[in-house]
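## retry 2 of 3
previous attempt timed out at serialization; input unchanged, resubmitting
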Amino acid sequence: MERADSLAMLNSEIVACSRCPRLVTWRAHVAREKRAAFRDWDYWGKPVPGFGDTRARLVVLGLAPAAHGANRTGRVFTGDRSGDWLFRAMHRAGFANQPLAEHCDDGLALCDAYVFAAVRCAPPQNRPSVDERDNCRPYLVRELALLDRASVYIALGGWALSQLAAHENIRPRPKFSHGAEIEISNGRTLLCSYHPSQQNTFTKRLTEEMFDNVFTRAKELLSV
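## retry succeeded, writing output
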């Protein structure tokens, strides 16, 4: 309960954050203008906190909320095609109770897994700046400290890998490659996967089989 309460308090801080003027302006603009397909939605339009099992042994880190995905729904990786890929894979591996993530009240629950993003606000062109990354970094550090049961990390893309490697003080900094497996301190493991963005999935750079293999490997490591 203490861990869950602490994470809930941190998430409240994240939702209230306004450290990055460009992101504050952009997320509000998107929430106001909307996409035609979602014109009846009341967009979230705020920083997006982490989501999942507060006693998770698996932690999954992405880049940032999608403008019309999590910035609309208020839950990380929810309401866009990247989230469809992620939660289908997590469901197949037994980390999610269902494959769909459409809105905050859709019944999705994670088992032994927690998902969050390195940057908490939707950035223009999905490209946060270095300063915006650094402004969000204290949240990442505090969140990982609270998720103290985690022993397997999955970095979705090179940006997430760089953040986790910096947090763990891994030297030399590892180069990103899909399927890479990096041993870190205290018997923990960092796994790398291409981000399930449309840029990767539409081009078949990332296939569902490739994605499943990463989560299968995470399951194997947790069962040891």
